[in-house]
Amino acid sequence: xxxxxxxxxxxxxxxxxxxxxxxxxxxxxxxxxxxxxxxxxxxxxxxxxxxxxxxxxxxxxxxxxxxxxxxxxxxxxxxxxxxxxxxxxxxxxxxxxxxxxxxxxxxxxxxxxxxxxxxxxxxxxxxxxxxxxxxxxxxxxxxxxxxxxxxxxxxxxxxxxxxxxxxxxxxxxxxxxxxxxxxxxxxxxxxxxxxxxxxxxxxxxxxxxxxxxxxxxxxxxxxxxxxxxxxxxxxxxxxxxxxxxxxxxxxxxxxxxxxxxxxxxxxxxxxxxxxxxxxxxxxxxxxxxxxxxxxxxxxxxxxxxxxxxxxxxxxxxxxxxxxxxxxxxxxxxxxxxx
Amino acid sequence: xxxxxxxxxxxxxxxxxxxxxxxxxxxxxxxxxxxxxxxxxxxxxxxxxxxxxxxxxxxxxxxxxxxxxxxxxxxxxxxxxxxxxxxxxxxxxxxxxxxxxxxxxxxxxxxxxxxxxxxxxxxxxxxxxxxxxxxxxxxxxxxxxxxxxxxxxxxxxxxxxxxxxxxxxxxxxxxxxxxxxxxxxxxxxxxxxxxxxxxxxxxxxxxxxxxxxxxxxxxxxx
Lengths: 338, 222
Fold this sequence. Notes:
The structure holds two protein chains of two kinds.
Chain A: H1 2-17, H2 23-37, H3 45-48, H4 50-56, E1 61-65, H5 75-83, E2 90-93, H6 105-114, E3 119-123, H7 130-142, E4 147-150, H8 172-183, E5 200-204, H9 211-227, E6 231-236, H10 240-250, E7 257-262, H11 267-276, H12 284-292, H13 296-311, E8 317-321, H14 329-336
Parallel strand pairs in A: 1-2, 1-8, 2-3, 3-4, 4-5, 5-6, 6-7, 7-8
Helix pairs in contact in A: 1-2, 7-8, 8-9, 12-13, 13-14
Chain B: E1 2-6, H1 9-16, E2 21-27, H2 30-33, H3 39-55, E3 61-67, H4 73-76, H5 80-83, E4 88-91, H6 95-104, E5 110-112, E6 114-124, E7 127-132, H7 148-151, E8 168-169, E9 172-176, H8 178-188, H9 192-196
């Protein structure tokens, strides 16, 4: 309790003395206090958090996705995160939702917190039942993670542990309702909590191939919003006109939409996506632009940067996804003028 | 066999409440053996439903029919004669039968009148117990003919757990500890050595964790 009071005083003090400095600098001071005196769950970091504030004040948010390692060597993750510290509002940490066993998103989220960066972690239903999910969410809050995205998970047969048993005790809508319930101080079995977590809950819209698929996705997203989702991550954008038409329909969902900007990396990837994901709307012109560029890698980075710039006109933020090329995030942000 | 139990009357009535003419379809296979949805149960449910409607001053027309097998398209085809005369179908077969009717008669609402329970065996008159979960990779040869997937509450592959007491499971004194049964059986067969072998983490792909399953017999498939 005394530590908590000390922390409150320290937070106000740092807020006053370090007011010309960034949120991250202030968090660093609070962090140093935590290292010395330990942590308490009722911290004031969430007041300093930029993602939640920017989201609720209709400001443009920049999110970068970073995978945790398959192992315990966190050097790349931490180094890449430090490179964009202060340039993004939060780092999105996927879990094992793509089916590959790796360090959990909670571990990654806590690492970001230790670096003074805000994180948004993925949660999903394939591997954990409602007990494990709720327990992890309580732990995530106490460890300083303030934001979650409830995501779709790939089938077990798509991953690297194909013989594992699938759980799927809940679906995405039920999980969002469960998290909302935890926020209201009651668990999914109806028992009262001793202190409830406060989280910003996000959800996703999956890639869609045509209008009929989009209609179903929007209806599902509406359910997720009704259940308690406060923002939506939408699929990758390669065609601004197509995205603006999507936004025309998605606006009715009533929560901020954050589209994904995916770094294409090569002609091969662009061609693959154009062939197998027709909903991505990768045009022949875009593929030609990459093919004809003297530096194709740089051209892909330029395309990502330009897309981010253009999306500022339509969306309330972007999620930058590089899938293994996190070291190129600073270059993408440079191109985007951020 | 696949076992089933009739749903509560209130739930069935709620399903068919909007309709006045229904087709009540039983099945002459598993649900007949476990006395949940055979010809006799179709007759009983039909009478009960009509009486429930009469109590509310309504009339329910019920066409009763019991098919040889509801999970077989060949027999489900027999309903074609009656399907247009009714507003909905109430099936007393297992979930396979209900879905076969739904597949064949795409525009007709179909409701289940029973809850499909498990694949089991008859213990004694009126008592059925779970014996198989259809994991797709039978290991009964390793466990003395007793399935730990279906009969151990924790589905342990290397049991028993600490909750096994006097041969009973911790969940209820009425439930046998499957691993105690396995041990006793292996002992009786002189196969104690088998018990000492560590079973590897099970591959769940042949079970439904790999998605909905199909069997294709190339020699039979048309």
